[in-house]
Amino acid sequence: MTTFDDRERAFEAKFARDEDMAFRVTARRNKLVGQWAAAQMKLTPEETDAYAKAVVQADFEEAGDEDVIRKLLGDLLAAGVETDDATVRRALEEQSVEARRQLMGEA
């Protein structure tokens, strides 16, 4: 029975590590895409930091990425930046790749 118990503990530990990494990648991605959007809106460095944090917080409103996309698209349009849903989604994908690259470099 110990072999099965050991295997179960190993699977549980791997699952926990994978979930932690997925959370960290999403949070980093949201920060990066917030910085991208802030640059589009020509915010100051202080405003950029605050905005990136607000984008990270927006992700906790509902499951999935729609809450973040809604915030980014709404804020960009309100600031007079010509953009659309596809552009925001593309930026989200690009920043996801960058976030994963950055976090893998830290590991």
What report would you give on this structure?
By secondary structure, this protein is mainly α. It has a single domain (26-106), classed as Orthogonal Bundle (Major Prion Protein), CATH 1.10.790.20. It is built from four helices and no strands. The longest helix is centred in the N-terminal third of the chain and has 39 residues, at 2-40. It is elongated. The two termini are 34 Å apart.
In short:
Helices cover 82% and strands 0% of the residues.
| CATH domain fold name | Major Prion Protein
Main β sheet profile: none
**Which percent range describes the beta-strand content?**
under 5%
Q: How far is it from the N-terminal to the C-terminal residue, by CA?
A: 34 Å
Number of helices: 4
Shape: elongated
Please specify the SSE layout and strand pairing:
Layout: H1 2-40, H2 45-58, H3 66-78, H4 85-106
Overview features:
4 helices; elongated; mainly alpha; 107 residues; Major Prion Protein
